[in-house]
Specification:
Layout (H helix, E strand, L loop, with lengths): L5 E13 L11 E4 L2 E6 L1 H9 L10 H6 L4 E3 L2 H11 L6 H17 L11 E8 L5 E6 L2 E3 L1 H17 L3 H13 L7 H19 L1 H6 L5 H6 L15 E3 L2 E3 L6 E7 L2 H4 L8 E19 H8 L3 H17 L6 H4 L5 E9 L22 H19 L4 E6 L8 E3 L2 H9 L5
Helix pairs in contact: 3-4, 4-5, 5-7, 6-7, 11-12, 12-15
């Protein structure tokens, strides 16, 4: 068995004309690397597409089938409440679910102005009265919510509510009520307050159980979750995913398109009912990610074998997932041309293979020269640093690598699950 702690993923995939990831102006996302403009696909876009494929007829929900139900990412607490009430309907009363979420949300509000792993913090509809009577809006992050986590809190709320207060607790409440000079709180209010404190105490005692419920959310174990305190616990993500960039310089093209209004043609009008522009380009993209196996094991409470199984599934997703933006217009459903995986002592990106932009080959394309540039740089880096990684790869083109070559992507996935053994 290998003792290497990191899995490094390297993918080369060529997309035909497309606009797979856009900025706030509707233009392609880009980056300057090696002094030249490259087209970019953000890591957020790739991770989102892995968790929630939008084209099931083209790419079945691989994540759901192999890694379980992903977390729910939202800041719409009303819809979240409705979803969990429906999901837990056979187990808990709606009031228990609502209270569980309300208690959990207190932590979400404490994460104000902090983004979760996809950096998607936004303003909520929540507002609070300030001392001057004015309302100030609060921010809560678009946080990942896990049904099993909420379910554990519901169990505590239900148990305490059904148990109620003991005779001694009721006696103390009545004494407190009678001692009030101006009866600021009613007897029922004091009872409700006591129930609340009892729930809080039980939740503190079962905090570890609530945290363990996170083990059902592989996406949080991989990508992390940020929180400050309370029931919503922080998780250090075991996976680092880079923004994918083209291996070569790209100058975007502009598509000037129109939409013809069929009905106005009958009245003798000419021209279009709508016209607009869309930037697009084609290119070979380098995708890189690194997985910390021991941290993944810690996050999920699993052994190395299970961590490697998850690593295998992530390889499949990184090599096959294609963002769905503008695909009805461009149909850039391209398969991966090259995939290399290494079991290593450290994260190692080989993006610098393309710091000097790849130049078109004799045939005029970038695909083969990109594979050659990657293989050449990988050999030089590994020789220069004396790295002894266990490395396997799949390629549709010949290359100079002396590592274990697999005939298929599936074989490479199995090699990784077998801890670097064919």
């Amino acid at each position: 068995m290998s003792d290497k702690n990191f899995v490094n993923y390297h993918i080369l995939i060529s997309h035909n004309s497309s606009c797979l990831n856009r900025d706030d102006m509707g233009m392609q996302k880009t980056a300057v690397f090696g002094g030249t403009r490259r087209v970019r696909i953000s890591s957020q876009s790739l991770k989102r597409e892995m968790r929630r494929p939008r084209l099931p007829e083209h790419s079945p929900n691989y994540w759901l089938q192999n890694l379980g139900e992903p977390s729910i990412r939202t800041r719409d607490l009303k819809k979240l409440n409705e979803k969990f009430i429906e999901e837990f309907g056979d187990e808990f009363e709606p009031a228990f679910v609502t209270e569980a979420i309300d208690r959990f949300v207190k932590t979400a509000k404490e994460t104000a102005n902090e983004a979760e792993e996809d950096s998607t913090a936004d303003e909520s509809d929540e507002s609070a009265e300030k001392g001057d009577g004015k309302k100030s809006s609060k921010k809560i992050a678009v946080a990942p919510w896990v049904s099993n986590e909420i379910r554990e809190i519901c169990r505590v709320v239900k148990a305490v509510k059904e148990e109620g207060l003991s005779a001694d607790e009721l006696k103390k409440i009545e004494e407190t009520f009678n001692k009030q000079k101006k009866k600021k709180k009613g007897l029922e209010d004091l009872k409700e307050e006591a129930i609340g404190k009892k729930i809080e105490k039980q939740l503190k005692e079962k905090a570890e159980t609530v945290r363990n419920a996170l083990a059902s959310a592989v996406d949080i174990a991989l990508f992390g979750r940020m929180a400050t305190s309370g029931l919503m616990t922080s998780v250090d993500g075991a996976m680092a995913v880079a923004h994918a960039i083209t291996t070569h310089t790209v100058d975007g093209d502009i598509d000037w398109f129109t939409a013809v209004d069929d009905l106005i043609q009958d009245s003798g009008e000419t021209g279009s009912g709508h016209l607009d522009t869309q930037e697009f380009s084609a290119g070979v993209f380098y995708r890189y990610a690194s997985l910390n196996l021991s941290l993944l094991q810690k996050n999920l409470g699993v052994d190395r074998a299970r961590a490697l199984e998850i690593a295998k599934h992530f390889l499949h997703l990184l090599a096959t997932t294609v963002p769905s933006a503008k695909q009805n217009s461009f149909a850039a459903f391209n398969p991966t041309d090259f995939a290399l995986v290494s079991l290593s002592d450290m994260p190692i990106s080989l993006a610098n293979a393309f710091e000097e932009p790849v130049i078109r080959g004799k045939s005029g394309g970038f695909r083969k020269p990109s594979i050659n540039a990657f293989c050449d740089y990988k050999n030089r880096i590994y020789d220069g640093y004396g790295l002894q990684d266990a490395t396997g790869f799949f390629s549709i083109e010949d290359c100079t690598l002396q590592d274990q070559r697999m005939k298929t992507l599936v074989a490479l996935e199995q090699w990784l699950q077998n801890d670097g053994k064919a």
